[in-house]
Design a protein that fits this description.
mainly alpha, 57% helix, 142 residues, 4 helices
């Protein structure tokens, strides 16, 4: 355990068991905030035995959560394959196209539109990452 303001160690727990953390929290009733990792047992214990304590993700795990969300968005929006050769819709060729060719052309256009949407989400995600980093640097040194 470390003090989040001074970064000095407070205590070293012998293990990551729920009972150990419960005992430790019971001996430190002065706590108001806890910065923790994503270990679910810690969340359960703190919520159950110290419900008045505010739980904060550390910055490493906050960025890790953002990357996980980023990956979920990519998997949801971006198809497995994108035909990057289809930049703009082309005029219909003079010959008549079959239904399969029309469907393939429509699918390629839809994939390109999905890639454009993903690019917008990625730009917003990067803005958030830079904002969080800059906010943390500012509040760490000022």
């Amino acid at each position: 355990m470390c003090d989040a303001m001074t970064h000095h160690p407070i205590d070293l727990l012998p293990d990551r068991e729920a009972e150990t953390l419960t005992d430790w929290l019971g001996s430190h009733p002065e706590l108001t905030h806890v910065t923790r990792d994503r270990y679910p047992r810690f969340q359960e214990v703190i919520s159950t035995h110290a419900s008045n304590v505010i739980q904060i993700h550390d910055r490493f795990h906050l960025i890790q959560n953002l990357w996980s969300l980023h990956d979920q968005i990519i998997r949801k929006i971006l198809p497995a394959r994108v035909d990057l050769g289809t930049h703009l819709p082309r005029p219909d060729p003079p010959r008549t196209q079959s239904k399969a060719e029309l469907r393939q052309k429509e699918n390629a256009r839809n994939k390109w539109e999905q890639a454009q949407i993903l690019q917008k989400y990625y730009a917003v995600f990067l803005l958030w990452v830079y904002f969080i980093r800059d906010w943390h640097v500012y509040h760490t040194f000022y």
